[in-house]
Amino acid sequence: MTEFNQQNTETGKGTILFGGSGFLGPYILENYPDIISVGRTAPPTRNRHIPVKSLENLDALKNLEFDKVIFIIGNTDHHNLEKETVPRGEPTAFDYHLMPLVISDRVKKLVALEEKEKLYDAATNESFTAQVEERRRKLFDNVYRLVSQGKKVIGIGAPAKASTICNYARLGSDLIEYVTEVNPLRIGKYLPGVRIPIVNEEFMFEDPRPADAGILFAWNYYDEIVPKLRQRGFKGEILLP
């Protein structure tokens, strides 16, 4: 297999990349401007982009000449390509000898489920957007109401989504006094964007002025976390984003 580069001059064709809007995609595209991006969302680079809403329909690629495909989404084993992995340390690329892209049964089932749930319909996305906005409004209103009544609100857990939620809901250090955390790498830092201090979880149980409410940012672990908090003496209201 030839060495991966911007435009494979030895084969005379080109390279396309699936999944260019994530974390790694833009980095690769920015450094290899001749690579063509393929996917639902255009990357924040100047590379040529071909919109493809679903792997079930790749008609947009019919007239495109290429012999290299980079997958940085999902599991590449889902796509039965004639392939040869490049050396370790380079982007994951495969030879693509202009053969049809065969989708495995697993991917077909996932696509069928997405279509059944109407995930490709604009109305579904509009409804989801409205639901997210309503949850943002309710969370802000609940926190603002409590603080306006002189009550103390804290955050429980500092996963990455805690920063996302607080920035989106405009919850800063004026409303949330601190966020608790067990990871020593995060303790002593601040929640990005909103500057809410991150403290050791033990402090919430030793706080001379216990919190009246806590926002559980790791709400997906509610059943595991909340009973332990109650056992340790936290009596405040649990708010869910």
- The total of helices stands at 6
Taken as a percent bin, the fraction of beta residues is: 15-25%
Largest sheet descriptor: 6 strands, mixed
Oligomer: single chain
| Average pLDDT for all residues | 82
Shape: elongated
End-to-end Cα distance, whole Å, is 50 Å
Provide the low-confidence segments as ranges: 1-12, 74-100
- The total strand number stands at 11
SSE run: EHEEEEHHEHEEEHEHE
Helix content: 25-40%
Over all CA atoms, what is the radius of gyration?
24 Å
Question: In total, how many domains does the architecture comprise?
Answer: 2
- Structural class comes to alpha/beta
How are the strands of the largest sheet arranged?
8-9-7-6-10-11
Features:
241 residues; alpha/beta; five-stranded mixed β-sheet; 29% helix; disordered N terminus
Annotate the secondary structure layout.
Layout (H helix, E strand, L loop, with lengths): L14 E4 L5 H8 L4 E4 L9 E3 L16 E4 L21 E3 L9 H12 L5 H27 L4 E4 L3 H10 L9 E3 L8 E2 L4 E5 L2 H4 L6 E4 L5 H10 L5 E3 L2
Parallel strand pairs: 1-2, 1-4, 2-3, 6-7, 6-10, 7-9, 10-11
Antiparallel strand pairs: 4-5, 8-9
Descriptive report:
The protein has helices at 24-31, 105-116, 122-148, 160-169, 203-206, 222-231, and strands spanning 15-18, 36-39, 49-51, 68-71, 93-95, 153-156, 179-181, 190-191, 196-200, 213-216, 237-239. It is of the alpha/beta class and 241 residues long. The protein folds into two domains: 15-116; 138-239, Rossmann fold. The strands form two sheets. Strands 8-9-7-6-10-11 form a six-stranded mixed β-sheet. Strand 8 (190-191) and strand 9 (196-200) form a beta hairpin.
